[in-house]
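Justification of resources, computational component.

The compute hours requested in this renewal are based largely on the per-chain cost of generating structure records like the one below. Each record pairs the submitted sequence with a full structure-token output. That output is archived, and it is also reused by downstream analysis tasks.
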Amino acid sequence: MIRAILLWLILALPAAAQSLPDWEYTSINDFAGLLSNDDIRTLDQALIALHDQTGVEGTVVTLANRASHGGQSGLEPFATRLFNYWGVGDKRRNDGFMILILKDDRESRIELGAGYPKAYDSIAQYIMDTDMIPAFRDGDYSTGLRRGTLSVIELIAEPHATGFVPEPMRISSDTDEGTSTRASLILLGVFLAGFAAFIVYIVRAQPRRTKRPSLSGPYLDENGELRGYRGSPISGSSGSWSSGSWSSGHDSDSGGSGSSRSSSSSSSGGYGGGSSSGGGASGRW
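The structure output for this chain reads:
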């Protein structure tokens, strides 16, 4: 009896592992055919440039659904399991990332390697909510994947490669002493508003000078637009990142070509054996 159970387990475990898809290319695996040819080229070049410049491995994966690949346990466990099955990222640094979309399930995931501090999860969620989900909701999957991937490169992968760690989000909550706390905050707000008005008056009285920002990570510019590690705008960008600078590009109509990516830039070396502990961000529409 025990021998029969052991034999069943030996046969069942490989079958479970085989339910996950095998990668065909290390940068883009468009199994669901959602990416346009232009966006495949743009993302392929950006991901290869990222790896050449920093050693960071990133990959984009499109699938029709989870159920066909043994993903009944939910989006987050499925993404982590696929990430670890492929071994995305360097096995010592665990700095890889995966952009995953499940078209029929209307779900998407930015899965980060175990080497990323938890503070990057909030940036990943911002990218998901701002660059990806609105486009997916409109059926423009290719644009959402392009914008999201370029944002992850610019706001997460590159800053992390330099050692930058973002400040964690601080969320306050009301307690039984909330009344006095709110009163103190109101007084502080009045003071700060007056002080800010005074500073604005002083600044406007000075001659205007243009100054380039010198920051080590993602920040908001004077217009409230999120900018990346090198100061380049993120939201709505249609260019590609290559050799340390942005090159202009153009949006193409969504609709996949059905190919995983351009064969001229395929990679046969495989991933670096990295792993994820479940960090990142999820989105549904």
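The longest helix spans residues 178-205. Residues 20-165+214-250 form a domain with the Diaminopimelate Epimerase; Chain A, domain 1 fold (CATH 3.10.310.50).
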